[in-house]
Amino acid sequence: MKPEIKQLRDKLKGLGLNGMIVSNPISVKYLTDLDAEGILLIAPKENVFITDSRYIESVNNSLTIDSEIFAYDKKNISKYDYEAFFENLGDIGFEENYVTYANYKKYLEMFHINLVETEGLVESQRIVKENYEIEKIKKACEITDQAFEYIIKHIKKGMTEKQIAYELENYMLSNGADGIAFETIVASGENSSMPHAVPTNRKIQENDIILFDFGAKYQGYHADCSRTVFVGTIPEEQKKVYEFVLEEQEKIIENFKEGTNIKTIIRNRETDYNLENFEVMHSFGHGVGLEIHEVPFLNSKVDNILKKNSVVTVEPGVYFPGKFGIRIEDTCLIDKNECIKLTKTAKTITTIKLI
Amino acid sequence: MKPEIKQLRDKLKGLGLNGMIVSNPISVKYLTDLDAEGILLIAPKENVFITDSRYIESVNNSLTIDSEIFAYDKKNISKYDYEAFFENLGDIGFEENYVTYANYKKYLEMFHINLVETEGLVESQRIVKENYEIEKIKKACEITDQAFEYIIKHIKKGMTEKQIAYELENYMLSNGADGIAFETIVASGENSSMPHAVPTNRKIQENDIILFDFGAKYQGYHADCSRTVFVGTIPEEQKKVYEFVLEEQEKIIENFKEGTNIKTIIRNRETDYNLENFEVMHSFGHGVGLEIHEVPFLNSKVDNILKKNSVVTVEPGVYFPGKFGIRIEDTCLIDKNECIKLTKTAKTITTIKLI
Question: Containing domain of residue B94, as a range?
Answer without folding.
Answer: 3-125
